[in-house]
TrEMBL record:
Signal peptide from the UniProt entry: none
Ranges for domain HTH arsR-type: 4-101
Originating organism: Acinetobacter pollinis
Family matches, as InterPro entries: ArsR-like_HTH, HTH_ArsR_DNA-bd_dom, WH-like_DNA-bd_sf, WH_DNA-bd_sf
Family annotation (Pfam families): HTH_5
Protein name stated in the entry: Winged helix-turn-helix transcriptional regulator
Taxonomy, superkingdom: Bacteria
């Protein structure tokens, strides 16, 4: 059984993750990347109705927290979800809170 120190460290990681995705714009951006891996900053900004600058700030924060990662492709960066756990959590949130049967995230 884990001791409380390990449990506390896990709780800190979970809390940090939840703080990042608790922003509706960031959550929407994660959904966009899940639906179409490899989107660029400009494509994510357009899909989420954000300025490129705002999208860039959110993307940087999510990459810093290891939620997303980017790959350089010539002069553009393409974004991907870093871990399957993130996708599982976002899908669970979508399932729990979606009002429509038409989910935009593949299940």
């Amino acid at each position: 059984m884990k001791d409380l120190t390990d449990t506390f460290e896990d709780a800190v990681k979970a809390t940090t993750f939840l703080k990042i995705i608790s922003n509706p714009q960031r959550l929407l951006m994660i959904c966009a990347v899940m639906n179409r891996p490899g989107l660029t900053n400009g494509e994510i900004a357009a899909e989420c109705d954000l300025s490129i600058s705002a999208a860039s700030q959110h993307l940087t924060k999510m990459c810093d927290e290891n939620i997303l990662y980017k790959e350089k492709d010539a002069q553009k960066s393409k974004y991907y979800v870093k871990e399957k756990t993130t996708e599982d959590i976002v899908r669970a949130l979508k399932k729990a809170f979606s009002k429509s049967e038409n989910h935009s995230i593949s299940e």
